[in-house]
Amino acid sequence: MYPWFAMGHLIPFLQLSNKLAKKGHQISLIIPKNTHSKLHQFNLFPHLITFIPITLPHYEGLPQNAETTADIPRHSIPLLMTAMDRTEKDIEQLLLQLNPHIVFFDFTEWLPDLARKLGIKSLQYMIGNPATAAYLGSTQADAIGFKGSREIEGPFVDHLANQFGKPVLLSGPAIPDPPSSSSELLLGLELTGFPFLAALRPPSGFESVESAMPGGFQERVGERGMVHGGWVQQQEILGHTSVGCFITHCGVDLDQSINARTMSSYLKVGVEVEKGEEDGLFTRESVCKAVRSVMDEESEIGKEIRENHNRFRSYLLSKDLESSCVDSFCNEIRELLK
After folding, report:
1. What integer pLDDT is reported at residue 332 of this predicted model?
2. Are 160 and 149 contacting, i.e. CB atoms less than 8 angstroms apart?
3. Are 144 and 168 spatial neighbours (Cβ–Cβ below 8 Å)?
4. DSSP alpha helices (H): ranges in 195-239?
5. Residues 137, 14 within the same domain
6. pLDDT of residue 206
7. Which of 18, 186, 233, 264 is the most exposed place for a label (fewest CB within 10 A)?
8. Do 118 and 205 belong to one domain?
9. Do 164 and 17 sit in the same domain of this protein?
10. CA torsion, points 160, 166, 172, 177, in degrees to nearest 10?
11. Is 296 a catalytic residue?
12. How far apart, in Å, are the Cα atoms of 253 and each of 95, 184, 199, 281?
């Protein structure tokens, strides 16, 4: 995929890539080299979607290091288009190396001819209204695509198919999938700056936890963080003096919300990670905020939680507690049986 270098085009192309990768397809997305940090968080399938960085040649009139429309005033957009046109040789070399079945583009009109020369099919993927394609559609591409559906854009699509005499494909509405909860958890732990151990199951669609890690995550955290995909000795880990905070889903299924409220609001031995009002999902920022509120020695919330922990710890570890509870339980059963 080689989209126009504007975030309003790069992100829809990445959204489409996520939809295709979810079906098991491999995608190479050619992007300006300095936009990787802005886009990697939206790559939900880093094991299938590869970012291919490309250096945009400088063109007179463009600011140094300008790569996208966000880096330039509106009147300089034609200059950016010209700079992208000068990447044709680089794109040809990339296509020879990658040998894709099909190449997606939107504004680079020379791509269909280049693809045809290399024996590759081309598809012009338009992110706007299908009516726009009546004016901007490529007569050279093998097909035209949109992020729409037949139920909504059907008549326009039929008209375009007749006008251009080629297939018009609909990818469905480009509604972004919610971020993976495992990715958000890991990225939240990274944001805290604290050492951590994360014991997780592989998310749906992944064979291992490692393959589901956010792009560049392991390289950034290094030895500060460990991610384990199997079973661990939880009691032994939590009993270690180095552990200062425990993140848990609070039981199973229907118990989770009740347990979380009990621990945070009633017993006050923990904090609940904030979740979105609309989608009910937590974010990396909310994970980081919760952990820091507990770990910060100057935090009033953290102080209260540590005091309550010490109080309950003394009670739960008191001598003969378990035995006396069982004795009381048995005595009440005897009374019940009389």
Report:
1. 82
2. no
3. yes
4. 217-221, 234-238
5. yes
6. 80
7. 233
8. no
9. yes
10. -130
11. no
12. 48, 20, 19, 15
Q: Is 9 labeled as catalytic in the residue annotation?
A: yes
Same domain as 278, residue 202: yes
Domain boundary pick from 142, 170, 198: 170
Report the C-alpha gap between 99 and 108 in whole angstroms.
Answer: 19
Find residue 169's DSSP bridge partners: 145
At residue 317, the pLDDT reads: 81
C-alpha to C-alpha distances, 279 to 179, 237, 288, nearest whole angstrom? 11, 33, 19
Q: Is 173 helix (H, G, I), strand (E, B) or coil?
A: coil
Count of the separate structural domains present in the chain: 2
160 shares a domain with 35: yes
The Cα 144–Cα 124 span in angstroms is: 5
179-210: pLDDT as tens digits: 678 889 999 999 999 999 999 888 877 888 88
In a domain, 65, yes or no: yes
Among the options 106, 177, 255, 309, which is catalytic? 106
- Per the CB < 8 A criterion, the answer to whether 18 and 177 are in contact is yes
Q: At what angle do helices 300-316 and 284-295 cross, to 10 degrees?
A: 70
Residue-level length of the chain:
338
- Domain assignment present for 334: no
Closest by Cα among 176, 107, 109, 173 to 146: 173
Cα distance between residue 233 and residue 248, in whole Å: 15
Domain at 88, CATH number: 3.40.50.2000
Residue 82 confidence (pLDDT): 94
Count how many Cα atoms sit within 13 Å of the Cα of residue 135 in the half-sphere of its side chain: 4
Do 132 and 237 fall within a single domain? no
Longest dimension (CA), the chain: 97
pLDDT exceeds 90 at position 64: no
What residues contact 3, with CB distance under 8 A and at least 6 apart?
Answer: 9, 10, 12, 13, 29, 31, 104, 105, 106, 125
* Residue 324 burial (10 A CB sphere; 0-12, 13-18, 19+): exposed
Residue ranges making up the domain that contains 203 = 185-316
Residue ending a domain, among 170, 194, 226, is: 170
